[in-house]
Amino acid sequence: MAMRVVEVPLGDRAYAIRIRAGLTADCGRELADCVSGRKVLLVSDDRVGGLYGDRVAASLRGAGATVATATFPAGEASKTLATVERLCRAAVAAGLDRGSRIVALGGGVPGDVAGFTAAAYMRGIPFVQMPTSLLAMVDSSVGGKTGVDLPEGKNLVGAFWQPERVLADPECLLTLPACELRNGLAEVVKTAVIFDPGLFARLEANVPKLLAPDLDFYLEVIARCCELKAGVVAADEREGGLRAVLNYGHTFGHALETRMEYRIAHGEAVAIGMVMAANFAAANGELPADAARRQRELLAALGLPTSMAGVDPDEIVALMARDKKTSRGELRLVLPRDIGTVEVRKINDPARLRAAIAAASRSPGGCCAGQVD
Ligand code: GLY
Question: What is the rounded (10 degree) CA torsion for 92, 60, 161, 152?
Answer without folding.
Answer: -70
